[in-house]
Specification:
This protein is mainly beta and 94 residues long. The protein has a single domain (16-82), classed as Immunoglobulin-like (Sandwich). Helices cover 12% and strands 56% of the residues. Strands 1-2-6-5-4-3 form a six-stranded antiparallel sheet, with no helix packed on it. The radius of gyration is 14 Å and the shape is globular.
């Protein structure tokens, strides 16, 4: 059966991720930057928590009102974290 669409889901910003040469990254649908350093950036997005790890990372653009963040540096890892018990695949198998 189809999923019931709520007003909250209609108001969510689309989550996008563009990575160029593992050095420049633009992310859309960002709700908050919870923590950052030159080795890791932790974000809250419309699709859940997200971690970017690498070297010499810096936030070159931050526009939380519109949900856009630009990160530069050497990107080694992009990881999403699920709030649901059992992770991403458990939600698919319901």
């Amino acid at each position: 059966m189809g999923e019931k669409v709520t007003l909250d889901k209609l108001n969510q910003k689309s989550h996008t991720l563009n990575l160029y040469d593992r050095a420049e990254m633009n992310i859309g649908g960002v709700n908050d930057v919870s923590e950052f350093s030159d080795e890791a950036v932790h974000l809250k997005t419309t699709m859940g928590a997200m971690t970017i790890k690498g070297n010499n990372l810096s936030i070159s653009k931050l526009d939380i009102e519109n949900g856009n963040v630009s990160i530069s540096g050497s990107v080694d890892l992009i990881q999403y974290h699920s709030k649901e018990k059992g992770g991403f695949f458990a939600g698919l198998l319901k």
